[in-house]
Amino acid sequence: MDISQINFPAVLIAALSGFAVGGIWYARAVFGNAWMADSGLTADEIEKGSKGKIFGFTAFFSLLMAVNLAMFLADAKTDVSWGATAGFLAGIWTFSAIAIHSLFELKSWRLIFINGGYSVVSLTLMGAIIGLWR
Fold it and tell me: In this structure, are residues 14 and 66 in contact, taking their beta carbons and an 8 Å threshold?
């Protein structure tokens, strides 16, 4: 790993892309209603959540994911194709961890695919951004 190969503005944009994907992914018209139902949550319960805490920690963990992925991609040979591939593979890794935890928590396969699918899509996009913006 060559840290000089990390483009930190690209990492920041990659981290922010997780918010965009999440906003679409968990929208009620996409997977939001199914996610709420399978999570046992109502819209009222979600509204009562601490938005500062939720979005603050989401920003922190998205940035952590993007920095980690950028460290793996810190090579002059990295391009958009390899970035997206590495992001996809990282997404499969996180999907698997989500699936393991969710199975022990007796969650539905639908919920596993909703949450795990978000990881695959968002990390693939993060990797593509990091690989493209060299």
Answer: yes
Instruction: Return d(Cα 57, Cα 80) in angstroms, integer.
Output: 28
Q: Quote the CA–CA distance of 129 and 119 in Å, as a whole number.
A: 15
Give the closest residue to 119 by CA, choosing from 85, 86, 90. 90
Provide the H-helix boundaries in the chain: 8-25, 33-39, 43-48, 51-72, 80-104, 109-132
Predicted local confidence at residue 134, as pLDDT: 78
Instruction: Determine the pLDDT at residue 1.
Output: 73
- Greatest CA separation found in the chain? 49
Q: Assess contact for 18 and 72: CB atoms under 8 A.
A: no
DSSP 8-state class, residue 30: I
Report, in angstroms and rounded to the nearest whole number, the Rg of the chain calculated over CA atoms: 16
Model's pTM, two decimal places? Answer: 0.93
**Residue ranges per structural domain of the chain:** 3-132
Extract the tokens encoding 37.
């139902």
